[in-house]
Amino acid sequence: MSDRLLVVSATLLEVAPSLQRETGVAYEGVGLPGSLIEGSTCDFLITGVGQLLCGVHLTRALATGRYTQVLQVGIGGSFDPSLGRGAVAVIIEEALADLGAEDNGAFLDIFHMGLLKRDEMPFSDGILSAPVLELLTLKDLPRVRSVTVNRVLSEERSIAWVRSQYRPQVVNMEGAALFYSCLLAGISFVSLRAISDMVGPRDKSSWDIPGAVGALDRVVKPLVSELTAGFGGGVCRLVGASTQQNAPVSGSR
Question: In terms of residue numbers, what domain contains 213?
Answer without folding.
Answer: 73-244
